[in-house]
Amino acid sequence: MIRNLVLGLLLGMSVAPAVTLTAAATKGNPMVLFSTSLGDIKLELYPDKAPESVKNFLAYVEAGYYSGTIFHRVIPGFMVQGGGLTADMKDKREGQRPPIKNESSNGLKNDVGTIAMARTSAPDSATSQFFINVKNNDFLNKESAQDGVGYAVFGKVVAGMDVVNKIVQAQTTTKGMHQNVPAEAITIESAKVVAK
């Protein structure tokens, strides 16, 4: 029975007990795959720690919002930021959702490989933009943040950190009011929820 079940799963066959296993597997943390012009980045999200941030991020992913946006701010030894501008440096307004509550007090740290919500100086202003930390940025954590609020981590890179490191090494320039912009656009071609 177990052998047939495993064989059925490997071959993608429909086996009655596999439905239960598949349902159980989906109870794990959501996973999102970014396909970028430099390669793939796979993220694991933490809805138990950052429910609003994860719900918001997944809504953007499922709506296809991130397709065609770029990593518009890359700073070596700090982070890469994306999710809100198009290659012509315009804010992507269509599909923009209302700002969400800052969840920086969830205990997650802005360590290497974590993904957090980008925001303005207003604590509850995050919408679609996010950043991936390329070093341990303790000063962004609630406990150390200059503004006493910090930046909400809601997941981490589980595959493709080499791609993130390629992004952060891109040659940058200033475009209009934006600094640290990759000279050649680094595009998010697609974002989708995937299985582990």
Structure explained in plain terms:
It is a single chain. With 196 residues, the chain is α+β, with helices and mostly antiparallel strands. It has a single domain, classed as Cyclophilin, CATH 2.40.100.10. It contains four helices and ten strands; from the N terminus they run ααββαβββββαβββ. The strands form two sheets. It has an eight-stranded antiparallel β-sheet with strand order 3-4-6-5-7-2-1-10. The two termini are 24 Å apart.
Short structural summary:
The chain has 196 residues and is of the alpha+beta class.
Rg, Cα atoms, Å? 18 Å
Q: Give the percentage of residues in beta strands.
A: 25-35%
In helices, the fraction of residues equals 10-25%
> Which term fits the overall shape?
globular
Query: What count of domains describes the coordinates?
Result: 1
Are there runs of 5+ residues with pLDDT below 50, and where?
Answer: 1-26
Q: Give the beta-strand count.
A: 10
Let me know the average pLDDT: 89
Biggest sheet features: 8 strands, antiparallel
Class per helix and strand makeup = alpha+beta
CATH class: Mainly Beta
Terminal residue distance: 24 Å
What tags apply to this protein structure?
196 residues; alpha+beta; Cyclophilin; 8-stranded antiparallel β-sheet; 4 helices; globular; disordered N terminus
Secondary structure layout:
Blueprint (H helix, E strand, L loop, with lengths): L1 H10 L4 H10 L5 E6 L2 E7 L5 H13 L5 E7 L3 E8 L27 E4 L12 E4 L19 E7 L1 H8 L3 E4 L2 E5 L5 E7 L2
